[in-house]
Task: inverse folding
């Protein structure tokens, strides 16, 4: 089969299943099993041996690895639901560099820290800080 046909099968059968609810379960310890299955599928699609590194295979096939899909879906969730989040400027009066990033409440509950709201804000703020570093 051609690579385009194999990619169509991959997206319809496997990717559709793993993307369902990925922002909610993507931080689970069981994701390593799903990622291993994804790597195995990529190797089979491209006809590579079992011990070949998948980093370049993902690039060559233009398929996002599971961790990148998780990050992308978290970012999309935060961008689409900005009304659920507040800015630091709404919680603090002091003018700082981080006044316009999203407020991340302090918590010690691991369950909450692995949730979509906490991780979404964390990844979104990290992305914004990288953008400000890259500006000329």
Result:
């Amino acid at each position: 089969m051609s690579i385009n046909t194999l990619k169509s099968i991959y997206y319809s059968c496997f990717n559709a299943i793993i993307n369902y609810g990925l922002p909610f379960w993507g931080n689970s310890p069981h994701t390593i099993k799903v990622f291993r299955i994804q790597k195995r599928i990529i190797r089979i699609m491209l006809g590579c041996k079992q011990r070949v590194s998948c980093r370049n295979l993902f690039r060559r096939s233009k398929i996002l690895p599971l961790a990148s899909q998780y990050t992308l879906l978290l970012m999309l969730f935060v961008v689409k639901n900005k009304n659920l989040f507040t800015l630091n400027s709404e919680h603090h009066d002091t003018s700082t560099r981080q006044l316009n990033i999203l407020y991340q409440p302090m918590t010690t509950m691991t369950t909450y820290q692995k949730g979509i709201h906490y991780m979404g804000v964390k990844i979104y703020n990290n992305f914004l800080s990288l953008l400000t570093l890259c500006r000329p």
